[in-house]
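Its record is quoted verbatim for completeness.
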Amino acid sequence: MITEEEAKSIAIKETDYCYVIAQAWEAEPFNSICLERIFTKGGCEEIRMAWWKNGRQTMRPADIDAPGWGRLFSEALKEGVFLDSEKFGMLKSLLS
């Protein structure tokens, strides 16, 4: 886990709510679904799934088909959305 100061120093984006540490897009950036590793201000690290449409984050459910989920998950692994310990935990779950 990291501190808020560390999150601030490595953030690729800052919002009123959080520092975005890593992002992976299912398709076109800012016009598709993304998985993000964020650090909430005054809080902790979280993984967030967000749906963006026409450059704006929507407040509606993010629906994605199975092939799209596979692409998004693969991209999230490459872009550092998940920590190595989280990847290991996912692998253990898949193998059990």
